[in-house]
Amino acid sequence: MTMKRWIGYVACLMLASGFVCFANEPLPEGIAHIEKVRIRSIEGHRFVRLSEYFTGKENTGNRMIVRSQPEERTGMYFILRLDRPVCDIQDASKVRMSMLLPLLAEPIVYEMPFASEKKRTRTVMVGITGSDWKMGGIIPVGWHVGIEDDDGNILAEHSSFLWRMPEEDTSFDAGK
Predict the structure, then answer these.
(1) Span 28-159: which CATH code?
(2) Which residue among 23, 44, 91, 112 is the one 20 to 30 A from 76 at the CA level?
(3) Is the dihedral of CA 163, 168, 173, 175 positive or negative?
(4) How far is Cα 114 from Cα 94, in angstroms, rounded to an integer?
(5) What are the strands, taking DSSP E only, across the chain?
(6) Spatial distance between the Cα atoms of 73 and 79, rounded to a whole number of angstroms
(7) Which strands sit side by side in the sheet containing 123-129, from one edge to the other?
């Protein structure tokens, strides 16, 4: 590879990285972006740690866990990956989880209080547990999750592809 070509590649790379930096403006303080959501069915015994056998209390460690029925652990979990630690979202007071299940016309909505002790982790496990999740292996057709403050302002949110309605596309008109 010649020196001119190598310098050209480096210049293009530097220019492209500059555009990426300007495109990713930081979010305002107290607001987060949910980067990724994974859905998993987790059995309750997966949450038991050794210290629980001695104390009788659940030890979540560094995990931030929010459940529809806090005393029940088995259920469907939506594992949210945030762009910043949970403790940086100061005003977060509740998680609103909406799901559309097969054969149901209306979504099911759960509101769960956010823990007062916010941890340093960037992961939040939102669980639909106990009698709220009797469907076993049924996976929601569409879902929407949001972290809100006391006034209902959304601090972070994410939806599945099937939850969002397609925007009206006027670029193609078959009649013309």
Answers:
(1) 2.60.40
(2) 91
(3) positive
(4) 4
(5) 34-42, 64-67, 75-82, 94-100, 108-113, 123-129, 142-148, 154-159
(6) 14
(7) 34-42, 75-82, 123-129, 64-67
